[in-house]
UniProtKB/TrEMBL annotation:
Residues 558-585 have a biased composition (Gly residues). It comes from Stichopus japonicus. It is an enzyme of class 2 (transferase). Pfam families: PrmA (PF06325), PRMT_C (PF22528). InterPro entries: Arg_MeTrfase, PH-like_dom_sf, PRMT_dom, SAM-dependent_MTases_sf. Residues 545-622 are annotated as: Disordered. It catalyses: L-arginyl-[protein] + 2 S-adenosyl-L-methionine = N(omega),N(omega)-dimethyl-L-arginyl-[protein] + 2 S-adenosyl-L-homocysteine + 2 H(+). The keyword Transferase applies. Keywords: Chromatin regulator, Cytoplasm, Methyltransferase, Nucleus, S-adenosyl-L-methionine, Transcription, Transcription regulation, Transferase. SUPFAM superfamilies: S-adenosyl-L-methionine-dependent methyltransferases. This is type I protein arginine methyltransferase. GO terms for cellular component: cytoplasm; nucleus. Residues 266-430 form the Protein arginine N-methyltransferase domain.
Length: 622
C-alpha cells in the first residue's frame, strides 16, 4: 500500500547550492514498494514532476534532512529541497529513508565478507588474536630480520613517508617503518590483537606516529593516501589464507607511484621423487582394509580414506636433490596485479628431467622480493635455504610417473580460490612421448604436517661411489697397528676411553646424562635430548656436514625435533635448534630465547584438528 503525503513544495538548486526556482504550487508525494524497493513519485495531477528509487541510496540518489520540515534530495546530478507541510509528515518520510538505509547496511557486505565464509573468518581472526601466535611469527628469525633489513636498507623509501601496514598484528612491521624514518603509520588489524598492539605503541611512546585501526582493510576509511604499503600476507604455497587479496585491495589508498613491500612473489613448482612418502600415505588407508575391526567390516571405506589422504598437501622440508627437474617459476607482481587475478591461478608446466626416477608429485616453495629504490632484499622458503615456518609443500599424484634422464614433461597446476580462505588445487603431469598422464585434486585448507625435526635425507640412488669407502678414505690408510697404533682412525687409548665413558639408557626418569667422549676426528660434540618411555636420555652427534643444492651447509643436531645452522643464532636444547627460520604457521615452529626453532604452533587456522595438526601447521613431535 502506497504512502501519500500532500502539500509538498519543491525548490530546485544549482550545482553550487544556490536557489534556482521555488515553486508556489503544491505537489503530492507517493511512496510505493515495487519488488521490495521503495519508489518515490512526486506529481501534480497526472503530471509526474520527480521520480526516484530509494534503493539507489548512496549511489545515484542521496538524501539528507534540511531543517525541521525539509529534505534535500540529489538525483542524477540534479538537486532539490522537498518542503513538507508539517514536521510529522517530514518524520514519516525520514522513517522510510532510515528503514531503507538499515536494510542496505544489512544486505551490503564488504569485499572480504563476500569472499569468506563467516565461520572461517571467525576462526581465522580468533587464531591471530593470541599473543602466542604473534610471538611464534615474531620469533621467526628469517622472516622478521628480512623485513627489518628490507626497510632499513631502503630508508629513502620510508623517510618522512606515510605508511599503511596491512594485517599489522603486533605492529612489529610498523615499528620497523618508524625505525626507517616513516612520519606516520596506519596499522590495520582486524583481530583482537589490535588492543595489545595499541598497548605496545603507547608503551613505546609512538601513539602520535602509529595509528592502530581495529578493522578489516576492506572496511576502513583513511584521511589520506599513503606512500608505501607493508604487510606479511604470505601463507603456505604463497597463496594460502588469501590475505594477498587484502594486501592488493589496500592499493586503493596508495599514491600513484607508491611502493609495496613485498613487491613481487615467486612460486616455484618442481617434480619430485619420494617412495617412502608415497607409501606412507597409501599405508595409512590400509587401516580401513580390516574385515573385522572389533567385529566391524571397514573395507567399504578404504577407497574414500585413500582419496582423503591423497588430497592432503604435505607440509615439511626435503633435500633439493629429490627434485628431478628445474622448478618452474610463477610470478605475481603485487604492485600491478589485481585481487581478481588470484581467484583462479593457472601455472603451465614444462620440464626436462635431469635424472631418472619415479615422479610422485609436485613440490612447492616461494620467494618474495622487496624492491626498494636503494636495494632489493629477498626472503626465501627454498629447500636450499634455512628452514622457515612456511617449510615447503608437496602435492602427491594419484599414481607415479616413471621418467628417464632428459625426458620432457608437460602439465599444469590450477589453484581455485574458495570461501574457506584457501584453494582447491588441481595438478596434472604428462609424458608427451608415451601419453602417460597422472592427476590429483587437493585441499590446501587441510594439509598434513609431516615435519619431524629430523635432518633431511638425500634421495636413494644419489651416491655414485661407495659412501663407506668415501668415509674411511678421510683417515690414514695404515689400518690397525700395534700398541699405540690406530684402528679405523682411533688410537687404542681413544677406543678405551670411548667404551668407558659411554652411558647406557637409564631405567628411570633421571636428569640428562652428558657424554664427554671425544668424537672421531676431534669434532666438537653436541648434546641432544630424545624422548623415551623410561625418561630422557642424551647422546652426542658429530656435526653433520653435507652438500645440498650446490650450497655447502652445516646442520647440528642439537635437540629432539630441532635443527640448527640456518642463520638464526646460537642456542640448543631439547626440542629446539638454532637459526632455522620461521614465519607464519599454525602449529609448527617457534623459537627459543636464543633464536632456535622449537615445536610449537604453525601459521594460520585450520578447518579442524588432525593428528595434533592445524590448518597451517605441520605434524610435529610432542
Amino acid at each position: 500500500m502506497a504512502i501519500r503525503l500532500d502539500g509538498i513544495q519543491l525548490t530546485s538548486l544549482s550545482e553550487r547550492g544556490d536557489v534556482l526556482q521555488k515553486s508556489d504550487q503544491t505537489f503530492v508525494m507517493e511512496v510505493s514498494n515495487e519488488n521490495s524497493v521503495p519508489i518515490v513519485r512526486i506529481s501534480s495531477g497526472s503530471h509526474q514532476v520527480l521520480t526516484f528509487s530509494l534503493g539507489d541510496l548512496g549511489a545515484s540518489v542521496k538524501v539528507c534532512p534540511a531543517g525541521k520540515s525539509a529534505f534535500m534530495v540529489h538525483v542524477n546530478g540534479s538537486s532539490f529541497i522537498l518542503h513538507f507541510q508539517t514536521e510529522f509528515e517530514m518524520t514519516r518520510f525520514q522513517n522510510i529513508v532510515d528503514g531503507v538505509q538499515q536494510d542496505l547496511r544489512t544486505k551490503q557486505k564488504s569485499v572480504f565478507e563476500e569472499r569468506t565464509d563467516e565461520a572461517s573468518a571467525t576462526q581465522y581472526f580468533q587464531f591471530y588474536g593470541y599473543l602466542s601466535q604473534q610471538q611464534n611469527m615474531m620469533q621467526d628469525y628469517i622472516r622478521t630480520s628480512s623485513y627489518q633489513k628490507a626497510m632499513l636498507q631502503n630508508h629513502e623509501d620510508f623517510t618522512n613517508k606515510v605508511v599503511l601496514d596491512v594485517g599489522a598484528g603486533s605492529c612489529i612491521l610498523s615499528f620497523f617503518a618508524i625505525q626507517a624514518g616513516a612520519s606516520k603509520v596506519y596499522a590495520v588489524e582486524a583481530s583482537s590483537i589490535a588492543q595489545q598492539a595499541e598497548q605496545l605503541v603507547k608503551a613505546n611512546r609512538l601513539s602520535d606516529r602509529i595509528i592502530v585501526i581495529p578493522k578489516k582493510i576492506e572496511e576502513i576509511s583513511l584521511p589520506e593516501e599513503v606512500d608505501i604499503i607493508i604487510s606479511e600476507p604470505m601463507g603456505y604455497m604463497l597463496f594460502n589464507e588469501r590475505m594477498l587479496e587484502s594486501y592488493m585491495h589496500a592499493k586503493k589508498w596508495l599514491k600513484k607511484g607508491g611502493k609495496m613491500f613485498p613487491t613481487v612473489g615467486d612460486l616455484h613448482v618442481a617434480p619430485f621423487t619420494d617412495d617412502a612418502l608415497y607409501m606412507e600415505q597409501f599405508n595409512k588407508a590400509n587401516f580401513w582394509y580390516q574385515q573385522s575391526f572389533h567385529g566391524v567390516n571397514l573395507t567399504s571405506l578404504r577407497e574414500p580414506a585413500l582419496q582423503e589422504f591423497l588430497r592432503q598437501p604435505i607440509v615439511d622440508t626435503f633435500d633439493i636433490r629429490i627434485c628431478l627437474a628445474r622448478s618452474v617459476k610463477y610470478t605475481v607482481n603485487f604492485e600491478t596485479s589485481s585481487e581478481s587475478d588470484l581467484h583462479r591461478i593457472e601455472i603451465p608446466l614444462n620440464y626436462t628431467t635431469h635424472q631418472a626416477g619415479a615422479i610422485h608429485g609436485l613440490a612447492f616453495w616461494f620467494d618474495v622480493a622487496f624492491h626498494g629504490s636503494m636495494q632489493s632484499v629477498w626472503l626465501s622458503t627454498s629447500p636450499t635455504q634455512p628452514l622457515t615456518h612456511w617449510y615447503q609443500v608437496r602435492c602427491l599424484l594419484r599414481s607415479p610417473l616413471y621418467v628417464k634422464q632428459g625426458q620432457k614433461l608437460t602439465g599444469k597446476v590450477v589453484l581455485i580460490a574458495n570461501k574457506r580462505q584457501s584453494y582447491d588445487i588441481d595438478i596434472e603431469l604428462e609424458c608427451p612421448r608415451s601419453g602417460v598422464r597422472s592427476t590429483n585434486r587437493l585441499d590446501l585448507k587441510n594439509p598434513f604436517f609431516h615435519y619431524s625435526g629430523q635432518p633431511v635425507q638425500p634421495p636413494s640412488g644419489t651416491y655414485t661411489s661407495s659412501p663407506s669407502e668415501s668415509y674411511w678414505n678421510q683417515y690414514p690408510s695404515n689400518g690397525m697397528e700395534g700398541n699405540g697404533g690406530h684402528l679405523n682412525g682411533y688410537g687404542s687409548q681413544d677406543m678405551a676411553s670411548l667404551s668407558q665413558n659411554t652411558n647406557v639408557v637409564p631405567v628411570a626418569n633421571v636428569d640428562p646424562i652428558s657424554h664427554t667422549s671425544v668424537l672421531p676426528g676431534g669434532s666438537a660434540q653436541h648434546q641432544y635430548f630424545m624422548p623415551s618411555s623410561v625418561g630422557m636420555t642424551t647422546s652426542s652427534f658429530q656435526s653433520l656436514t653435507y652438500q645440498q643444492g650446490g650450497m655447502h651447509k652445516q646442520r647440528n643436531r642439537t635437540g629432539g625435533g630441532g635443527v640448527s645452522g640456518g642463520g638464526g643464532g646460537g642456542g640448543s636444547g631439547g626440542g629446539g635448534g638454532s637459526g632455522g627460520g620461521g614465519g607464519s604457521a599454525y602449529q609448527g615452529l617457534s623459537y627459543n630465547h636464543s633464536g632456535g626453532m622449537q615445536h610449537q604452533q604453525h601459521r594460520g587456522p585450520s578447518s579442524h584438528m588432525q593428528n595434533n595438526n592445524r590448518h597451517g601447521i605441520r605434524s610435529l613431535l610432542s
